[in-house]
């Protein structure tokens, strides 16, 4: 697996896991035992529904390595870009299924959980990202 795609994949997997975890904890505190079942459902549905987002996340990671900022700046740019992608994804989902959901408090908590999950997932690959960001640009493009 190429290093850039590995980072992309790790961000995606970890974001889904943390999002499912946060939603599961919220449901567990609100409804009881259902939270653990909801965690598994959100985890499985998250993998299926967000798999096409890898097509969008990978170019964002590649672009973040090419911008003329410091490693720390590139990493924060990546985190911001992925948060914008999350907001666009949930806005599109809400637009498509508007008849079933409204932008209520619970939906806002779901979006907040997704944003926090993406920030944690992006932060968790900081070391790998920093190492990849220090490789010469000509070598990095081929990876």
Observed structural traits:
143 residues, mainly alpha, elongated, 83% helix
Counted beta strands: 0
Main sheet makeup: none
SS class: mainly alpha
Fraction in helix: over 70%
Contiguous runs where pLDDT drops below 50 for at least 5 residues? none
Helical run tally: 7
Mean pLDDT: 84
SSE series: HHHHHHH
Shape: elongated
Percentage of β-strand residues:
under 5%
Distance between the termini: 9 Å
CA radius of gyration? 16 Å
Layout: helices, strands, pairs:
Elements: H1 3-31, H2 34-50, H3 54-66, H4 71-96, H5 105-124, H6 126-133, H7 137-142
Helix pairs in contact: 1-2, 1-3, 1-5, 3-4, 4-5
What this model shows, in words?
It is a single chain. It is built from seven helices and no strands. It has 143 residues and is mainly α. It is elongated, with a radius of gyration of 16 Å. The mean pLDDT is 84.
Summarize the structure.
With 143 residues, the chain is mainly alpha-helical. It has 7 helices and no strands.
């Amino acid at each position: 697996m190429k290093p850039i795609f590995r980072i992309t994949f790790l961000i995606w997997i970890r974001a889904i896991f943390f999002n499912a975890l946060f939603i599961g904890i919220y449901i567990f505190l609100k409804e009881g035992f259902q939270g653990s079942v909801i965690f598994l459902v959100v985890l499985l549905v998250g993998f299926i529904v967000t798999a096409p987002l890898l097509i969008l996340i990978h170019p964002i990671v590649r672009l973040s390595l090419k911008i003329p900022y410091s490693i720390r700046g590139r990493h924060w740019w990546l985190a911001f870009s992925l948060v914008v992608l999350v907001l666009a994804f949930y806005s599109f989902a809400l637009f498509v299924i508007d008849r079933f959901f409204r932008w209520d408090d619970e939906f806002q908590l779901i979006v907040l959980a997704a944003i926090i999950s993406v920030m944690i997932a992006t932060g968790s690959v900081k070391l790998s990202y920093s190492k990849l960001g220090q490789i010469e640009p000509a070598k990095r493009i081929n990876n």
